[in-house]
Amino acid sequence: MFYLVGLGLFDEKDISLKGLKCLKSVDKIYAEFFTSRLFGSSFEAIENLIGKEIEVLVRGEVEEESKFIEEAKDNDVALITGGDPLIATTHSEFLVQCAKKGIKYEVIHGSSILSSAPAISGLQAYKFGKVTTIPFPDYNFYPKSPYEAIEENLRMDMHTLVLLDIQAHKERYMSVNEGLEYLMNIKNDLDHEGLITEDTLAIGIARVGSKDVVVKAGSIGDLIDFDFGEPLHCIIIPSKLHIVEAEYLVEVAGANPEILNEI
Questions:
Q1: For 182-218, how does the pLDDT look when each residue is reduced to its tens digit (9 = 90+)?
Q2: Is the dihedral of CA 136, 139, 145, 150 positive or negative?
């Protein structure tokens, strides 16, 4: 039997009771933390909670070898990951492999940034459009697609959740500040007047699921120098606001009360 278990958002306490019971009973536990990780917890704390050793896999071992699938033919094997395990398309492929090989499987879901960030932002979930991700730029690699995705959502009066790049193998996690700078650099390279400027309302979010979560709303120009603290971070670019959304951003997220006059 193959078990795909999500650990949730921030620390080992986010693991569901169902997930914990499963992990205590299986024969072998593997983990991958390159798509997501628990910043409020150590690897040792997770092992101590479960009471078993965990083998951490690198990207190649997960995406190319998938040895845990073969082992699941004769043993109960679990793969754990931060967040919800099926948000990463890599993981859904494992279920395809199990189905083809006749291996039984079970998915135990965990809380995900895709639902938690929109929720803590105070914006209405059904008004979100396409999710986009800002990557770390590299040599000859500075795609405009994140900016264009936000523009497309704004034209349809949809909010945008902007995920920020994670390079766990390098201990490199993009900040809200770096993400906003990326968008402004794209704006400066456009051959047309962009919809996203330093005056655009944005929401910076840090450490969702923790006691010191930060939700700060303001113009991009104001937020670009704001200290959001430790990872993980994400950004939301709102579209047209309902009065309830606007009041939340003012009272909870510290937005300028003038946005209420624009409703």
A1: 999 999 988 788 899 999 999 999 999 999 999 999 9
A2: positive
List Cα–Cα distances, 166 to 12, 44, 198, 202, 208, in angstroms.
20, 22, 25, 21, 15
Q: Which of 236, 228, 223, 227 is nearest to 210 (CA)?
A: 228
CB 5 within 8 A of CB 31: no
Q: What are phi and psi of 132, to 5 degrees?
A: -130, 165
Distance between first and last Cα of the chain: 54
Report residue 162: phi and psi, to 5°: -110, 110
Phi first, then psi: give them for residue 144, nearest 5 degrees: -90, -5
Contact by Cβ (8 Å): 123, 93: no
CB 6 within 8 A of CB 110: yes
Vertex 117: Cα angle to 214 and 125 (nearest 5): 135
Taken in order 34, 179, 133, 253, the sign of the CA dihedral is positive
pTM value is 0.92
